[in-house]
Amino acid sequence: MVRRRSSVVRNGLCVLVVLVLSGCTSPAAQPSSPLATVPLPTPVPGQCATGTVGRTVPADDGFRRAVANAGRRVVRLPARTIAFDDFTPANGTLDGGVVLASARGIVGAGVGRTVFEVAPGTSTRAGDIPTGFPNTNQLSVLKVDGDRTVLRGFAVQGTDQGHLYNGLRVDHGSGLRASQIRVAAIPGDAASPPGETFGINDYRTAGSQWSDVVVDGAGVGASGFGVNNSTDITICSTLSKQNRYGMGFAFWQSSGVRCIDCRAIGNGRAGFNFERVTGSNELVRPVAIGNAYGVRISNDLGTGTFRIVDPPLTDGHFVVTLPYRYNGRPNLQKASGITLIVGGKPRPDLLRIERY
């Protein structure tokens, strides 16, 4: 891949070459990048808000310094690869970069133009990778904290570190608006912790809205888009593909999930996987192709309701998989809590429940 000159962040200090942009408009030239060529579903206007950027501050004195001194403004990033030189401690996690609550978000110059990564071979944190279920991997390339945060127009790229880690983690926020983001080649090796890592991890948030997102596991990913302990999340026009070891979309212990025009393609396990998900949830025009399971729902604590609207049918049916057991316990998710809507009408005759 042809790469622009990058700035390496070392011990929290760096100087970025400034690219002056007019507002948030990306230059017309398109870089050579596999992330920029991934096809997307056609967005549905009005389904997911992208957030208002408002006042911005340019990252002209280093990414970390700009974030720390943003004064609740959005940090505007130039077209650069911003490469961190290790995972560093950050409030219980280890991260390449952290967007603190002092900044109201980050807006890049566009996918394939502003790219975050950990510089190849620079991690010294292999010893911090946990062993044994249910311990989870706490390393991420980029972590975002804060409420009403806007994220837009950048990519997160996996690199070889000799160990597993996560991509983009959004942590304990409310009202997130994230759009035009690509994550690629984040390494994992299992469908459960600690080998299950996430390209994107929406963790303990409320009211998040994501749109125009691609998570490309590139054959090395575990689970693509993870939602863990979050409520009232909406995901629009998002593709999760080629996550070899895990799920396209993995929802755990969350509620109020809504996916609109989302696609899960070529993932090792379920395309859309729900575990311990409660409340009212909806999949509108979901597409699951080339996964071990299309939609799979497991719950050892109770049951949720799932409304599936106008999905493509296979052999005249839509299949939902309900395992008999989950975590060694009976699966309590009720088939009666799953409704298939086709052409505006309930169609229980077209819904097929499969068990194993």
UniProtKB/TrEMBL annotation:
PROSITE patterns: PROKAR_LIPOPROTEIN
Keywords, comma-separated and alphabetical: Signal
SUPFAM superfamilies: Pectin lyase-like
Coiled coil region boundaries: none
InterPro entries for the chain: Pectin_lyas_fold, Pectin_lyase_fold/virulence
Signal peptide: 1-28
Taxonomy, superkingdom: Bacteria
Protein name: Parallel beta helix pectate lyase-like protein
